[in-house]
Amino acid sequence: MTEDEIAALFTRSGGGYLFARWHRPIVPVVFGLDDATLAVVKGAIEAIVALAGHRMATTDPEQGANLMVFFLREWDELLALPDLGRLVEGLEPQVARLGAAGATQYRQFRFEETGAIRACFAFVRISDALAEAPAETIALGLAAQVILLWSDRAFAERSPLAGGAGRTVLRPDIAAVIRAAYDPAMPEVARDPAHALRLAARIAV
Fold first, then answer.
1. pTM (2 decimals)?
2. For tag attachment on the chain, is the N or C end more exposed, with fewer CB atoms within 10 Å?
């Protein structure tokens, strides 16, 4: 990928560049799925974390779990979950906005003092169209989008996934960006677009 293509993945709709990756090991917990589908989602998360060269753990000493994934049929279901409003900032107005927009996904991140990702709340509404997609496709797309703080418009026009040999896989260019982003020599947080040039150099190597 070119420097400009990479920069676009982390340039917010407001115009600023903002990159962040996870600092601590990822500890996922998933709600709203049967056991078989739960295994698919956790497997996809494990695969993306392994691709990044990052770590997973069984518990976070401060938070218990730091990647909370919710699957639901209607956004209003979130308002009935006890104490969720204490964890997710602005839950009620956000639910109203998501419902009005017909959204199928939403992610809210928490950050360390350094700006690295500390936690993520990810929500997937299983619409009629999404219900027809294989669980593996939904899970892989979700995992790819929580491993980094992508721009809010990074995948608005093109999915991070691609079809191939009868199955869905992570796009090779996106996989390369994830691997480069977790290079130990790279910063956990970046606000200077020159960061995209460093990512491009590592991908080229």
1. 0.93
2. C
